[in-house]
Each structure stands twice: as C-alpha cells, then as structure tokens.
Specification:
Elements: E1 4-5, H1 13-22, E2 29-34, E3 41-49, E4 61-64, E5 68-69, E6 75-80, E7 89-95, E8 98-105, E9 108-112, H2 120-129, E10 138-140, E11 152-154, E12 157-158, E13 170-171, E14 186-188, E15 205-209, E16 215-221, E17 226-230, H3 236-245, E18 254-256, E19 270-273, E20 303-305, E21 315-319, E22 325-332, E23 335-338, H4 346-355, E24 364-367, E25 370-373
Domain SRCR: 1-81, 89-190, 205-307, 315-359
Protein name: SRCR domain-containing protein
Subcellular location: Membrane
C-alpha cells in the first residue's frame, strides 16, 4: 500500500538526500512541507531517524503508523536534482537567457560565488558556453529566485572572457571561502537581437534614428556591444543624463518615450533597464541600473531629444500652451536665460514676436510673465 510520510519536525536534509538516492538521483535535493487538499491519506511513517550512510529510508530508524489518519499540513514533498555531467552549466530561477549560474561537478549541481572576481568576463564565458553571444553579456547583482541556494562549487573564478567553458578559466586557489554576503553569481545573456563585437567602452552612449544628432533612440555600450535601454516610464533625469554624457548640456533636455518608439526599434540586444533619480554624466551611475530587469520587447526602447545649442541673440518662447505664448528666453554665450520685465512693454514684445516669426502686430498682452501676440 502506498502512503504518505508526515513530518513531525524530524525530517531534514539527511532524509531528503537518502530518499533522492533511493529514487535513482544523486544524493542531493531539497524538501518542503506541503498541506494536502483532499481526502484522507494513509500515514505510513511519521518520522525517520537517518544517520546519512543508509541506502534506503527503510534502513533508517522510523516511527511506523498503520492506521489511517489526517495529514493536512505536514506531508513531505521532494525536489531531487537530476543527474548531470561534469562541465554542464545552466541558468536557474529566471528565464532561458538570465538567472543564477549553476555548474555541475562530479554529478552535483552547485552555484558559483559572486565574489570580487565575478564580472562581465565571467558572464561572457557563461553565455558563450550556453550558446549566446559573449558580447553584451552582463554580470548582475539581481537575483530572481529565493529558493535554497545549494552548495557553492566554484570560488575565485578568474576568466579573461575568451574561454569556451567556465572550467577553462583560472581559479585563485587562495580565494577566501565564499561569504554569505557575496551570494550567488547571476548573468543576463543577450537574447533580443543580434549582438556583435564593437570596440566601444562600457557606458558609451549614442543616439540612433533621429533627424538630427540631438535626438534618437538611446543605445548604450556594455561589454563590447551596443544595445538599447528598456523603459516604460517617463524619466526626466534619464534624459538629462544621456544629454550630459553626449555633451549636450544646455538646460531644457526632454525625454521622449513613445510606444513603438518614434526613432524605430533597435536590432541589437536590450542591455539595460534603468531609472535615474538624479541627473549625472553616465547611465552607469543611475541608482537602479544594477538591479537589472530583463526587457522583453524592443517596443519599449527609450528615446531622447536633447536641447540643441543656441547662438548668441537667439530668442524663444518657453512654457506656453502653444507657439504664440511663453516666457521670453534669450541666448547669451550659448546659454539660455530669461529677461527681467523692468521697462518691458508692448514695444519690446513686438520685437520679440517678429524675431520668432510672428507679425508683431495687434494687441500684445503680458499675463503672469508670459506674452501673447494677438
């Protein structure tokens, strides 16, 4: 007769390993307690007392129950690890192209320590070994799985980025034991476009698909590949940072996000998901850049329009509801600034209106520091 095993706070990893070994898997796995949802289950055993050297559960000391009882909250559920071949590698907890890195050593799956050595060189090797392009591969601090970590099998891994397998990399024999503070190594492999080598530097930015050099789809360089930035939210500081990085530092940068972006969808990988909480000079400095959430579609590629440089004497109207209305700004030394309204009257307003392309005729009203050419 088949029956369940009910936990009485005596089931632990030793019993789990023996049960997995008895089922034909290698002796390593995870167990958890699950409540049943229907009927009465015969409870065959309520506890085992294994020492770790047994070949079967029946070889362990146990508590036997022959009567039918409820087991509604303490039924044991196993998650055994499948057998693997030394040198195998996989990503766990995320998707097919991102997740926690696990390696197989002597038939056992385990993790790689995210220590001080872990960077994009190691990520490149992992992604190449899994069949992805190494260019644009990213070592990230994100973690997509909260399950038990398992054992750490590799520490002090030091790749140069060109190896075909993570097991071809050098290992620092003097590396410290993996601290729990370092956690597990995670990667994101380029999967949403063609990722080819480019002689660019991490953090480089370019604008693509715009009608001028001051606007376009934002593309960033990471690990020798150009890719797009995934964004579904308005982010003024993101725009300012992009424009600053490109040297377009005049005030008034605008962030443009349009569904199915105005500047066309990118053809390379999606390399970054970011939100900037202040303006800077590099997207790599944005606070949430390291918490990578992989993008799933190029329809959310971010685009930016930067303020074009002005020439001395240029005039513009800013902040109004239409082109006829606005605060008057004047360009001096390639910088936009305002005009004090001392002595300001319709004569001055007429000149401004003519300079920006309107007739300058008819009544001109000043309303709360704006002017309207009627």
């Amino acid at each position: 007769m088949w029956g369940t095993v009910c936990s009485n706070n005596n089931w632990n990893n030793i019993e789990t390993d023996i049960a997995c070994f008895q089922l034909g898997y290698y002796s390593y796995g995870h167990s958890s307690i699950r409540g049943t949802t229907s009927g009465l289950f015969p409870i065959i055993y309520s506890y085992f007392n294994c020492q770790g050297n047994e070949a079967t559960l029946l070889s362990c000391g146990s508590g036997l129950h022959s009567s039918i009882q409820y087991c509604t909250n303490n039924a044991i559920e196993l998650n055994c690890e499948a057998n693997c071949t030394s040198g195998d590698i996989r990503l766990v907890g995320g998707g097919y192209y991102y997740g926690r890195v696990e390696v197989c050593v002597e038939g056992i799956w385990g993790t790689v320590c995210r220590d001080s050595y872990w960077d994009n060189n190691e990520a490149s090797v992992v992604c190449r070994q899994l069949g992805f392009s190494p260019y644009g591969s990213i070592a990230v601090t994100s973690s997509w799985n909260s399950e038990e970590r398992g054992i750490t099998l590799l520490t002090g891994l030091n790749c140069n980025g060109t190896e075909k397998s993570i097991f071809d990399c050098l290992v620092d024999a003097n590396a410290p034991v993996c601290s729990s503070n370092w956690a597990d190594a995670n990667v994101v492999c380029p999967a949403h476009g063609i990722s080819t080598y480019s002689n660019c530097t991490d953090g480089d930015i370019r604008l693509v698909g715009g009608s001028t050099e001051y606007e376009g789809r934002v593309e960033v360089c990471l690990n020798n590949a150009w890719g797009t930035v995934y964004s579904r939210y308005y982010d003024y500081y993101f725009a300012q940072t992009v424009c600053n990085a490109l040297g377009f530092t005049s005030p008034g940068a605008m962030y443009m996000y349009i569904y199915n972006t105005k500047f066309g969808e990118g053809s390379g990988p999606i390399l970054m998901y970011t939100y900037c909480y202040s303006s800077g000079n590099s997207l790599l400095d944005c606070t949430s850049q390291s918490q990578y959430i992989p993008g799933t579609s190029h329809e959310y590629d971010a685009g930016v329009r930067c303020e074009t440089p002005c020439e001395n004497g240029d005039i513009r109207l800013v902040g109004g509801s239409d082109p006829l209305v606005g605060r008057v700004e004047l360009c001096v030394n390639k910088t936009w600034g305002t005009i004090c309204d001392d002595y300001w009257d319709d004569n001055d307003a007429s000149v401004v209106c003519r300079q920006v392309g309107f007739s300058g005729q008819g009544p001109i009203m000043k309303i709360y520091a704006y002017m309207i050419n009627k």
